Model the fold of this input.
Amino acid sequence: MATHAPRRIHIVGVGGPGTSAIAIILREMGCDVSGSDVRESPTLDRLRAVGVRVNVPHDAQAINGCEVVAHSTAIRDTNIELVAARDANMAVWSRSATLAWIAEQTRTVAVAGTHGKTTTTTLLTLMLRAAGRDPGYLIGADVPQLRHSAHWGSDVFVVEADESDSSHRAIAPQSTILTNVDIDHLDEHGSFAGIVASFDAYLAAIKGVKVVCADDLAAVQLARRHGAITYGVGDPVTGAAADGGSVDVRATDVRFVSGGAQFTVVSRHGPIDMNVPLRGEHNVRNCLAAFTMAVELGVTPQVAADALRDFRGVQRRFEVRATHGGATFVDDYAHLPAEIAAVLGAVRADNTHWRRVVAVFQPNRFNRMAVMSDAYRDAFVAADVVVVTDIYASGTDRIAGVSGQLVVDAVRAAHPAARVEWRASRNELVDFVAREVRDGDVCISMGCGDIETLPDEVVARRRELAHGR
Done:
């Protein structure tokens, strides 16, 4: 791998959320950056606006003159640009290798864990900016308060460390946050024990500050082993961590009011009140994680707390996309059981008082659902109506007998009285949801595939139905 900034780097699949952010950072670092993708998108327009040359579709000639060709994990080895790069003996970097090289160029703080990385990375970035600093950052979603999802700053570099392709092991940060350890990406790690072992090795390699969630048993056990600072809400009665021990930075008096959370942070710095426009206990933990690391990085506690009062959220994290006919339509990236349960539970804990909660779920990846479908059995207990559609492949190959129906069967078996609807095709799904959602309902569509456009499609269909079509 090059030890200097590549003079010219081409990124195959540059329109993805991770690779587009890397393209922006490389451009700001002074690299000559080009990229390609299969179709036009607003993301490509934003990249062109900052000086990234983009071609659509892929073209083997696009790599001519490059020093490095990088690619996203969604790009197959048979891609014509990758084949041409290897034939020309060019350096070919994976997304994780590219990110690791970037992280080596500065002081890096990584946010790792199965859930909450994007939100926590955003919160920490905003706290540092509120202190008048210029952090670099790479965030896996658009953030309304930031011009781009990535920036090469003059201070620390805050980055998500993704375990899906073991990027968290490739990056060598000086400090880290570990939000939690849950079952996912078994194709990469083999088992839950394999996932725990990967985070164990990750923490062992970090010499600086380690901030780890105390409410997650696997995480807090790793925290004790590696001398980490712990944070969490703790047991509701004793305040203890998941392993029965103490918590270094804790939220007390947690209240959820009008779509936000109010709580007091108790630490060695004394009590600090926080009021953030985020729903759910999971987001209280995200705030605690960011607060703890920000203070360790030199931000005063009050500045860190105040930085989030006007937080405007992260794209696809409980993003209200539309209201129509008295109903509210929300889009959320949640796609794992714990994430879905957290989102739906947060709605129930709030005092917004929607009449019904309609949950729409698009499962993701055939290989994930082949081994994890049953884990969704209790994820939807806070919903009044559950609608499941078929699997979004995300580049995985179809597996015989594996479909979204497996999730439906798991939920029905565990909760026979639950109302669970199976609508395999997109047309069936849109029409059913358009007719089902009523005045006073909140409809939350969840998944990490093309389900993000469902609110717009449903509202359009409702308008057609209103005109008798």
The domain at 8-94 is CATH 3.40.50.720 (Rossmann fold). The chain is about 35% helix and 20% strand. The chain has three domains: 8-94, 106-306, 319-466. Residues 281-296 form the longest helix (16 residues).
